[in-house]
User: Which sequence fits this backbone?
């Protein structure tokens, strides 16, 4: 009845108004928290600088990634001496990362049943740091993936195409770290894979060279540290090398047993990529290694041979030229 | 709808209002929010910004000077002195003009209210592990806890997050051009590349024997003062802080009765000790290196002219003092316990326009006797000279000295022992010569000399007992 309706309305409006205003009253704080510098995290939305806009358009909108390039208190390892990135290096770095890491994945998965692959699996945060992370034993950490949620990348201030070894190593690391994320999602390969080098894994892997490790059936010395690392090393090193360079690395191994083991590991890895992710490894390899070579302005017919740590030579028009 | 559905939100807001009425209760995050706002406003309020004289590691380094202006838009403008700008610049950065650089700052509330220099800046260079040294760099910080401010708002107290050390932002009232104009003059006067042999400077304290101060190490902003104490020379290093007015020592140093706290720049090439007339630090030197030696425990320090066999010797560069004298402590009283080694290389012209090179390390005093031994030692030195010059390297014993001369064009080299190189006539091309020796305690040669001082103390003769040749040292 009308009387009731009016009563309802009569009550409803002031209650709503009070309800809404009480949200503001509750904090008892008269201050206007304006100004972007005060007590607000560096999210993408309010960052209207050129860097912020680039990140928003190329990382956040399409892939829901937050890129943290400003130094944030307590996100960094206080046990190391680190500095934030130089502003002028951030966008070039991120655009390179996109071309060599993200775009190939997007392209290769665009026709699969998960065209949203990258957006689904990519870590939601990429933390960018200016300097290397130099550990107390003198070794250097290049990248760090924390349980699928965050990847931290170091040495943005010094990464350049002039430093060829470091440059390719960086992309090896990037693909290696992302492979860990995929690995954490699905380990169907594991049972078959882990028996191939059952007794070779060790925590003192750093006492071997890459060449010696290959003679034992491991793609690199670091691959000896665990089954998981072995697997992602196979994946990432294959991707950053051309097919010829990759085959050279394996074919030149003198121990035939080791060669066979590596080819078997390669088979399991490529089948897993195909069966689980619908990714053809040789097509994917083509996308990734050509993207790297394009960044480095390599001339036609020249491919680099990356052995896990260094560029050990080139393939020039089909001919192997070692350093 | 029951009325209770309307009453509940009303009641809820009443509760909230009641909570607000309680003056004693404040939400902790609001308290911190106010604190942060207050400091943020204070930082931004200074028109001419703030002075940050920052010691990244108070034991190992002096202070590095920054002016900083914090803007509303989250950007900080920063400038350092010229010396720092070029010394810490990468090749790329050297191409930029010297002046103000911009970067981001934020104030975050995580482990307390923290002022963070969020993108790479001039300050980051002191935190960068890859500059100069690998691993830790200068051990500086990127972020600082806001500890509070002075009543008048002229000082903001900070604490570095990693090193947990106090530091201060002091309100700047001098226009930036003026500040850096003066600061650069002070620093360029101390660290003057145009002054030859500028490693030593005279520190003239009224009524005292001159002490000697070495040049500052501008990568660390440390200075060393050599001073006398009971006839011995001691060295003290101290952290320095440059200002537009001069140099502040982090802790006072004593030279005799004088307690030095700072040097005041007088605008030309002198600094007044403690800002008072009478005692000065002279920084513009004419280029004579200092020599220091003692006879019978009495230390003689100053610039000397050296004569050998009637020929005036030209002293050249400074070199290093041996801290490991050969011989037992009884026989040798070395001056240089705390100093680095000095090697004296004297180029002695003969009358034909050619040179002899004599090499000496320390000149030390034999205990109780007026005997002084000149000990030769080995070193590696490089000269370039033209083929028409004749250079003979002379030594008492040439057994342990080898001479290499490399033809700079062809790379051919020859090795000569004894030390003599006479080059073909009419050949004029550059040679690079290396003098190397096998250095070992037993391979040193000594000449035993008698020291004959002149009555007025203006010169000494070191007379070689074996052959009567002598070295004469004249005070300038």
Assistant:
């Amino acid at each position: 009845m009308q009387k009731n309706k009016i009563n309802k309305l009569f009550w409803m409006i002031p209650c709503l108004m009070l309800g809404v205003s009480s949200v503001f009253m509750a904090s008892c704080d008269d201050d206007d928290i304006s100004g972007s510098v005060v007590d607000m995290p560096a999210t993408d939305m309010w960052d209207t600088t050129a860097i912020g806009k680039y990140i928003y358009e190329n990382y956040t909108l399409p892939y829901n990634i937050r890129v943290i390039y400003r130094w944030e208190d307590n996100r960094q390892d206080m046990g190391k001496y680190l500095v934030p990135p130089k502003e002028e290096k951030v966008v070039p770095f991120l655009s390179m990362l996109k071309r060599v890491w993200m775009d190939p994945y997007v392209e290769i998965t665009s026709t699969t049943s998960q065209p949203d692959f990258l957006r689904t699996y990519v870590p939601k945060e990429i933390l960018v740091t200016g300097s290397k992370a130099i550990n107390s034993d003198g070794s250097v950490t290049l990248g760090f993936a924390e349980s699928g949620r965050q990847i931290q990348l170091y040495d943005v201030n010094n990464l350049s195409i002039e430093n060829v070894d470091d440059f390719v190593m960086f992309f090896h690391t990037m693909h290696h770290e992302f492979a860990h994320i995929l690995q954490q999602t699905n380990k169907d390969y594991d049972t078959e894979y882990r028996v191939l080098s059952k007794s070779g894994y060790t925590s003192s892997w750093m006492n071997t060279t890459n060449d010696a490790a290959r003679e034992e059936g491991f793609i690199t010395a670091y691959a000896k540290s665990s089954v998981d690392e072995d697997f992602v090393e196979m994946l990432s090193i294959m991707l950053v090398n051309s097919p010829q360079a990759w085959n050279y690395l394996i074919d030149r191994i003198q121990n035939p047993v080791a060669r066979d083991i590596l080819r078997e590991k390669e088979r399991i890895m490529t089948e897993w990529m195909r069966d689980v992710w619908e990714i053809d490894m040789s097509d994917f390899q083509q996308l990734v290694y050509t993207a790297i070579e394009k960044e480095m302005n390599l001339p036609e017919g020249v491919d680099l041979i990356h052995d896990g740590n260094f560029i050990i030579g080139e393939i020039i028009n089909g001919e192997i030229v070692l350093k | 709808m029951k009325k209770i559905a309307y009453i509940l939100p009303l009641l809820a807001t009443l509760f909230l209002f009641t909570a607000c009425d309680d003056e004693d209760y404040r939400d902790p995050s609001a308290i911190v929010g106010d604190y942060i706002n207050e400091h943020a406003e204070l930082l931004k309020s200074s028109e001419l910004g703030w002075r940050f004289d920052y010691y990244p590691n108070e034991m190992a380094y002096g202070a590095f000077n920054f002016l900083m202006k914090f803007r509303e838009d989250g950007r900080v403008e920063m400038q350092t002195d010229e010396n720092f700008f070029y010394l810490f610049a990468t090749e790329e950065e050297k191409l930029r003009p010297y002046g103000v650089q911009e970067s981001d700052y934020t104030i975050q509330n995580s482990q307390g209210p923290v002022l963070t220099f969020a993108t790479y800046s001039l300050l980051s260079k002191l935190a960068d592990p890859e500059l100069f040294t690998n691993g830790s760099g200068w051990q500086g910080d990127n972020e600082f806890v806001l500890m509070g401010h002075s009543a008048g708002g002229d000082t903001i107290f900070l604490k570095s997050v990693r090193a947990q050390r106090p530091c201060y932002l002091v309100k700047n009232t001098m226009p930036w051009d003026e500040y850096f104009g003066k600061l650069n003059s002070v620093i360029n006067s101390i660290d003057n590349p145009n002054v030859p042999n500028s490693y030593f400077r005279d520190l003239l304290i009224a009524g005292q024997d001159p002490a000697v101060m070495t040049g500052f190490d501008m990568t660390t902003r440390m200075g060393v003062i050599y001073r006398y104490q009971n006839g011995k020379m001691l060295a003290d290093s101290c952290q320095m802080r440059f200002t537009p007015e001069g140099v502040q020592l982090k802790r006072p140093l004593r030279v005799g009765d004088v307690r030095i706290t700072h040097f005041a720049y007088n605008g030309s090439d002198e600094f007044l000790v403690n800002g008072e007339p009478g005692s000065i630090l002279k920084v513009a030197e004419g280029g004579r290196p200092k020599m220091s030696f003692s006879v019978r425990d009495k230390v003689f320090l100053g610039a000397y002219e050296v004569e050998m066999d009637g020929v005036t010797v030209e002293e050249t560069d400074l070199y290093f003092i041996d801290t490991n004298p050969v011989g037992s402590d009884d026989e040798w009283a070395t001056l240089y316990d705390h100093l680095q080694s000095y090697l004296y290389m004297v180029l002695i012209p003969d009358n034909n326009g050619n040179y002899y090179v004599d090499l000496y390390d320390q000149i030390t005093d034999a205990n109780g006797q007026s005997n002084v031994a000149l000990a030769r030692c080995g070193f590696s030195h490089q000269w370039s000279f033209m083929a028409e010059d004749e250079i003979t390297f002379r030594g008492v014993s040439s057994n342990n000295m080898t001479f290499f001369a490399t033809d700079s064009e062809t790379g051919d080299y020859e090795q000569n022992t004894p030390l003599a190189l006479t080059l073909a006539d009419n050949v004029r091309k550059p040679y690079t010569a290396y003098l190397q020796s096998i250095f070992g305690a037993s391979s040193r040669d000594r000449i035993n000399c008698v020291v004959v001082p002149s009555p007025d103390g203006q010169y000494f003769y070191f007379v070689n007992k074996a052959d009567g040749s002598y070295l004469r040292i004249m005070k300038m």
In short: Chain B is about 15% helix and 40% strand. The helical segments of chain B are 3-21, 28-45, 82-87, 91-94, 176-190.
